[in-house]
Amino acid sequence: MTQAATRLDVIPQSGHAGAEIRGVDLTRELAEDEIGTIRDALLKWKVVFFRDQFLDHDQHLRFSSYFGKPTPAHPLFDSIPDPDYPTIYPIFRDRFKARIANSSGYDKVRWHADVTAAVNPPFASILRAETLPPYGGDTQWSNAVAAYNGLSAPVQRLADELRAVHRFTPGDGAKPTEDYLRRVERRPLVSEHPVVRLHPETGEKALYVNPGFTQYISGVSPHESRRLLGLFFEELGRPEYTVRFKWEPGSIAFWDNRSAVHLAPSDLVTEHDRRLYRITLEGDVPVGPDGRESVALEGEPFEAV
Length: 305
Prior knowledge:
Elements: E1 9-12, E2 19-22, H1 32-45, E3 47-50, H2 57-65, E4 89-92, E5 124-131, E6 139-143, H3 144-149, H4 153-161, E7 163-167, H5 178-186, E8 190-194, E9 196-198, E10 205-207, E11 214-217, H6 222-236, E12 242-245, E13 252-256, E14 260-263, E15 275-281, E16 295-298
Parallel strand pairs: 2-3
Antiparallel strand pairs: 1-2, 3-13, 4-15, 5-13, 5-15, 6-12, 6-14, 7-8, 7-11, 8-16, 9-10
Cofactor: Fe(2+)
Keywords: Dioxygenase, Iron, Metal-binding, Oxidoreductase
Domain TauD/TfdA-like: 13-280
């Protein structure tokens, strides 16, 4: 971090989520004020984007290290990464074949934050694009703080008191493969988190449930749990809280898992190749408005390598 700083431009991409950062070259070492500008933009906009950044694995790792400690590439699919880069998770077009037996998997994609089945989900994810199809494959993000703020005050007070159980599930209507079931059984990850999380840096309240991992709300009937989660999930997916990003080779998305959820593309029906690489950064244990921390029901924390 000895390079001279350059002026960074932070350009909002929607009303509540997403900003593109220009004027920085991520292939070189960054100055402290550049790192600070990027982090401030991340905290404000929940996801930041960069374009024309053709990083290799080592440069990707160096950029990630400015903000936190990389975790293992994935808590279940540890056999996928390059053994020389165990913290980099490749995201390829056919990646769901190891998990879902009755579809391509992309039609089962739901809003989620990464690895919330762990008691300490990653605080952030940094995804870079290398090879992309000529069309389709956009990713969306939603601001979970805006979603909480969009609830009426009585519903906010109710949500503040609730807790929910998160685990790995294959998706609605999806038939898991035997390999997927073996991996979940061998390394179970189940945690109870507050439905509303206090952001440790900004103090903001964020809805901390998601259709991808949240199984049920604790302490209420199954019927009540389904209705409450349906309400919260619908709020998270409201278009006004979201941003949609069209990938190009050299694009990077860096998002705050504590205050954003994302939706992987569901339109990858072509035979064109798609290759991206993700690094997740070690997170802390969520805390709710009442001061209670998340609890691990099964499994170990998802810690840095």
